[in-house]
From TrEMBL:
This is Sarcosine oxidase subunit gamma. InterPro entries: TrmE/GcvT-like. It comes from the Bacteria.
Length: 188
């Protein structure tokens, strides 16, 4: 039998998460988060909400994100959310969530489909007005949306003042990172 020595790499192809600081902005590749989409099945919205509440999984309204002790979530569409949890304890996030929800929800593994970049620093609105149509000045912490960055469908989640996440397709991670770097260079 072959002895395969596989080694995980980040979405940008590195051994460890890549980070760059450009002026007052730091862009960091985040790889320690497990992701799953959670969609209530037809007629099961109330049951999913009750189960999520009991399991400590916040289900925010449209345009919002929320964080609890273990799980963080952001709204995707009616009765659908992206669930985030620490990768170290939730590597198989679907197997952890499925027993809670049973047949009331469809849960799909998303961890390897997306690349997350955290952007921190002062005056992020100046940077993001060059990137997308999500007006950071009009939205505060706990806001989230799907938008287009560099012709790619991405999610932007405002985690705190001066800290947000851009979650884009893993297959286009280098393009998303390049767009973030270019916007930071031109803004500052």
């Amino acid at each position: 039998m072959a002895d395969h020595r596989l080694k995980p790499i980040t979405p940008l192809g590195h051994d460890v998460p890549h980070s760059v600081t450009l002026g007052p902005v730091t862009i960091t590749e985040v790889v320690d988060t497990a992701l799953a989409s959670l969609a209530a099945r037809m007629g099961e919205g109330k049951a999913v909400a009750d189960i999520a509440d009991a399991a400590g999984i916040p289900l925010p309204p449209p345009g919002k994100a929320a964080k609890a002790a273990t799980y963080a979530t952001f709204w995707l569409s009616p009765d659908m959310w992206m669930v985030e949890a620490p990768f170290a304890t939730h590597e198989d996030i679907v197997a952890i969530l499925k027993p809670h929800f049973g047949e009331t929800a469809s849960i799909t593994e998303q961890t390897d489909a997306w690349a997350r970049f955290d952007v921190t620093g002062a005056d992020l609105p100046a940077m993001f007005e060059r990137l997308c149509n999500f007006d950071l000045r009009a939205h505060g912490p706990g806001s989230a949306t799907r938008t287009v960055i560099e012709h790619l469908g991405c999610y932007v989640v405002i985690r705190a003042e001066g800290h947000l996440s851009v979650i884009g397709p893993r297959s286009s991670a280098a393009s998303v990172f390049h767009a973030l770097e270019t916007a930071a260079r031109s803004a500052f």
